[in-house]
Each structure stands twice: as structure tokens, then as C-alpha cells.
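Figure 2 data, in text form.
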Amino acid sequence: MSRSNRGAWPYWTAAAVLAALFLLVIFRWAWFESLALLVLPRKNILLPRTPLYVLAAQHLVLVAATSALAMALAFVLGIAATRPAARELRALLIRLSSLAETFPSAAVLALSVPLLGYGFKPTFLALFLYAILPVLRNTIVGIEGVAAAVVEAALGMGFDRRSLLWQIQLPLALPVILAGVRISVVINISAATLGAAVGAGGFGVPIVSGLRSLDPVLILRGSIPVALLALVADTAFRAVERSRLPRSC
């Protein structure tokens, strides 16, 4: 077994444990709620109506849809920005994506509602904008970070620019790109809770309800699954990153 694969196993094990705990919270929340009630008061002003597994499905669909589209676009734009004839495009893309990051997600949601209405669409737009920058930046940094000597050697061996990109630069840049994907997904998992404020569902629903009623147990009903889901994603992506490091026997 390669050293990189051995280094990935602890992360895969941790991800599996966290995923099991996440599922346990989703389907057996009553157990955790009874423990929380031993130390926290329950207001009983607003009682949860939607099962946690339904909220989990809503949250996962929202995160998966926005992250997948943002990653695909950012990956393509990142590759385009590293081409020798596209230096101006590189600077423009970095400026635009950084500008998108400066707007608070709550502000993007508020501005999107009058145009797109309540529900999935404004939340999708806000998460999509926030998910682009980490992948775009890391794609550019990863490709440009390949050693010049490696690039020159590949060109000297007869590689054209296309072959150089797909066979040399992207494989070497993959760990850096995956780090950007990990950051993007974790940000989206957390930020997706804001969608509850505009009717997009997800784990933000009990959090918002708990804040309105000052019910800490209800807040935990949404915040604990979100935290676990973010930890699962972060740990799993770290395992993939470790497995893609240069291998040595």
C-alpha cells in the first residue's frame, strides 16, 4: 500500500464515524433531545413539524446542486484563465469572484428575493456565487504552481499544450484543486441554513424557529446536523486529497 493511501485511511475512518453519527441524529433525534433537555430549557412555543430526514434531503439537494454547478463553471474558467493568451481574463475572473465574496450571503438573498421570489431560486443564486471563488482560485493556483522545469521537460518530450494540461498539469494540481472543492462545499453546507429565511427549507428551519422562540433545543435540532454534515464533507475530502498526493511505496 502506498504511503498516501495509508495516510488517507484515518480520514476515511473518521468520515465513516461522523456519517454514522449524522444518520443517528437524523433518524433518532429524540434520543439526543432527551439528553439536551436535562440541561437546557424547552420553550414548547414552536413544535417541529417536518422530520429531520426531510430537512436533510432538502439541505443536501440545495448544497449538491449549487456546488456541482459552481465547481464545473469554476473549473472550466480556471483552466481558461491559465492559458498563455488569457492573462487578462485571469485578472478579471479573480476580481469578479472576489467581489462576489465581499457581499454577505444574507444581503444576496435579500436582493434576490424581489427578482426571483421566495424559495429555492434566491438561495441557489447566493450559494452558487459563494461556491465559485475557492474552486476557481485553487484551480488557477494549482495549475500555475506546477514547476516550470516539469513543464519545460514535458514540452521538450513532445507534449502539446493540450496534452501538457491533461496529462501533467491537472494531475499534479489535483490536490490543490480538491482543497478548493472542500472549502467550497463546507462553506455551502453552513451557508445553506440561511435559505430557511426565504422558504428554501433545510436545517435552517429549526434554527430560525428556535431563534424566534428562544428555544435552545430547537436550535440544536438544526445546528447539530449541519455541523456533523460539514465535518463529514471536510473529512471525506481531506481523505481524497491525501490519496491524491504523490505516491511512494
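Caption note: Residues 3-243 form a domain with the MetI-like fold fold (CATH 1.10.3720.10).
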